[in-house]
Write a structure and sequence with these properties.
single chain, Glycosyltransferase, two-stranded antiparallel sheet, 2 strands, 2% strand
Length: 346
């Protein structure tokens, strides 16, 4: 009689646990599916924004090279390549456009763009990821040539202090600032990872520049001449250091502490500020590399915010640079865990 009661109780407890756990499992699955659905819809939105010549652009037709590289990277992050996957065709057109935009001096861009170093750096990231997967020998050699000359352009465009400005040092009277410097460092690192020769001296000088721009509190200033600490640039600089393998140096530790206080978890991720998407585009890369529960908590918060702001037709609005920019960045953030892009991998 006692055995029967105990057995019945166990069956009841097991049945209750099954009922309680089933909705949790379903909720998690639906949440994951929702993220994938949002990303797919947003990438389709971007497909509709691509111009016949293969490029994307920001508001007022600006930043064509930068937007093309960012959107192409977002589509690579989905798992598509130039030959396979749902977004193979737009990726291939983007590659074609950027190869055409490669100049004899190595610049991927055009002189009429007063901020062409952004496009140059993002293009190095995008094309280096394509290069690693390219199977056509002729096409592969073409991309390698473009990237090799792009690296040389970076070396020639670097300022005397080791940074970069919106244009080359020669054209910009040796002016430099933090955000463009970060873009070049990540581009150079992506090229090196892909097997393109990159001088260690260029990267070392850039890291020294970032160090010189960092205050004792760990915040990176707008430029080496000052301009105040900028959380978005600090997050970007930390991501660049991680790309360069600088995980536990005194500089990176100081910057991590600053980001903890001024970005997350010290400051709510849900509060918007200027350049929010730029900041979390880079900070997400940092936290993803750290992994563990810290990444899980961060991802949940950033996903909640991003998913609440998506437009009905896919994509995200942005008053500063435009929907193409914000949508590309958000799609990259939401797809980091897929691990398709070597530059963002742990």
């Amino acid at each position: 009689m006692m055995k029967t009661k105990i057995g019945s109780r166990r069956q009841i407890v097991f049945a209750l646990l099954t009922l309680l756990l089933a909705p949790i499992t379903d909720t998690v699955a639906k949440a994951d599916e929702n993220v994938d659905d949002v990303v797919q819809k947003s990438l389709q939105f971007l497909v509709g924004q691509q111009k016949r010549q293969g490029y994307w652009e920001a508001e007022r037709g600006e930043y064509r090279v930068a937007m093309t590289a960012l959107v192409g990277t977002a589509m690579l992050a989905e798992g598509s390549t130039t030959t396979t996957g749902e977004f193979a065709d737009p990726i291939r057109k983007a590659v074609d456009y950027l190869l055409v935009m490669s100049r004899p001096n190595g610049l991927i861009g055009y002189k009429g763009d007063g901020h062409y170093t952004y496009g140059h750096g993002f293009s190095m990231v995008f094309l280096s990821q394509v290069y690693g997967e390219e199977e056509d020998i002729k096409r592969r050699e073409e991309i390698r040539d473009v990237l090799t000359r792009a690296v040389q352009f970076c070396a020639d465009a670097q300022t005397t202090r080791g940074g970069w400005g919106y244009v080359s040092a020669k054209e910009g009277n040796d002016f430099d600032e933090g955000s463009t410097c970060i873009t070049q460092v990540q581009g150079l690192r992506a090229c090196r990872n892909a097997g393109i020769p990159v001088s260690k001296e260029i990267v070392d000088r850039a890291i020294k520049y970032i160090d010189d721009c960092t205050t004792p509190k760990g915040g990176v200033q707008y430029s080496i001449k000052g301009g105040g600490e900028r959380p978005p640039i600090t997050a970007a600089a930390l991501a660049a250091l991680f790309n360069a393998g600088e995980y536990d140096t005194e500089l990176s530790k100081k910057m991590r502490a600053y980001c903890d206080e001024h970005i997350w978890p010290g400051k709510s991720i849900k509060s918007s500020s200027g350049h929010w998407h730029y900041m979390h585009f880079y900070y997400a890369q940092v936290i993803y590399r750290q992994g563990g529960d810290r990444w899980n908590r961060y991802l949940q918060e950033v996903q909640d915010k991003i998913l609440k702001e998506v437009n009905a037709g896919g994509g995200w609005s942005d008053r500063q640079i435009g929907a193409v920019y914000t949508t590309a960045i958000n799609c990259i953030i939401l797809q980091l865990e897929k691990g398709y892009l070597p530059i963002y991998q742990r």
